């Protein structure tokens, strides 16, 4: 189980995000096994505080010689905005499944005489280091946040951190 400092830092981070954004989604491996309530109580407490729902309902981690566990989560305070939740093997990890979801929403139409540019990024693990792969994901995330702010889908405000 992760130490108390992680859950404290995580809670502070979500608290700062919560002040600026109405819709929050947390996706990833938080290292709390939700199959075992006694080992995941700190995460359940955070979910209660922020009214988060975990959309992953089945185990995501299948280590050899160990029972299945559910370390990966999709937490959100707006579950009705997400659909097509997946939890499937992907061949990249030895024991973790890949989780994903689709976010409901629509972009406003471009203003008159404004062209909408679309960037395409091909992210592949083949021939890439994990560092290069993570760097590509972060660049894609920065592009999406910039685009969402410029189209009004996400409000721009003072820095969160």
Structure description:
- It comes from Ridgeia piscesae.
- Keywords: Membrane, Transmembrane, Transmembrane helix.
- The chain crosses the membrane at residues 133-154.
- This is Endonuclease/exonuclease/phosphatase domain-containing protein.
- This protein has 3 helices and 5 strands, in the order H-E-H-E-E-E-E-H.
- The radius of gyration is 18 Å and the shape is globular.
- The model has no long low-confidence stretch (mean pLDDT 79).
- The chain has 2 domains: 1-105, 4-Layer Sandwich (Deoxyribonuclease I, Chain A), CATH 3.60.10.10; 107-155, no CATH class.
- The chain is of the alpha+beta class.
- Strands 1-3-2 form a 3-stranded antiparallel beta sheet, with no helix packed on it. It has a two-stranded antiparallel sheet with strand order 4-5.
Task: Report the end-to-end length measured between terminal Cα atoms.
Answer: 26 Å
Q: Low-confidence segments, ≥5 residues, pLDDT <50?
A: none
Strand content: 15-25%
- How would a crystallographer describe the biggest sheet? 3 strands, antiparallel
Q: Which structural class matches the secondary elements?
A: alpha+beta
Neighbour order of strands in the largest sheet: 1-3-2
Oligomeric description of these chains: single chain
How many runs of DSSP E, i.e. beta strands? 5
Coarse morphology: globular
Integer average pLDDT: 79
Protein name: Endonuclease/exonuclease/phosphatase domain-containing protein
Keywords: Membrane, Transmembrane, Transmembrane helix
Transmembrane segments: 133-154
Organism: Ridgeia piscesae
């Amino acid at each position: 189980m992760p130490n108390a400092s992680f859950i404290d830092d995580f809670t502070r981070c979500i608290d700062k995000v919560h002040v600026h954004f109405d819709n929050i989604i947390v996706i990833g491996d938080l290292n709390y096994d939700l199959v075992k309530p006694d080992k995941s109580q700190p995460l359940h407490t955070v979910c209660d505080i922020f009214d988060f729902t975990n959309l992953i309902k089945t185990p995501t981690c299948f280590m050899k010689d160990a029972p299945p566990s559910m370390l990966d989560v999709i937490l959100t305070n707006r579950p009705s905005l997400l659909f097509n939740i997946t939890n499937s093997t992907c061949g990249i990890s030895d024991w973790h499944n890949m989780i994903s979801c689709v976010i409901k929403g629509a972009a406003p139409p471009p203003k008159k005489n404004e062209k909408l540019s679309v960037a395409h990024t091909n992210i592949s693990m083949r021939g890439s280091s994990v560092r290069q792969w993570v760097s590509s994901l972060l660049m894609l995330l920065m592009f999406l946040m910039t685009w969402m702010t410029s189209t009004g889908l996400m409000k721009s405000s003072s820095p969160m951190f």
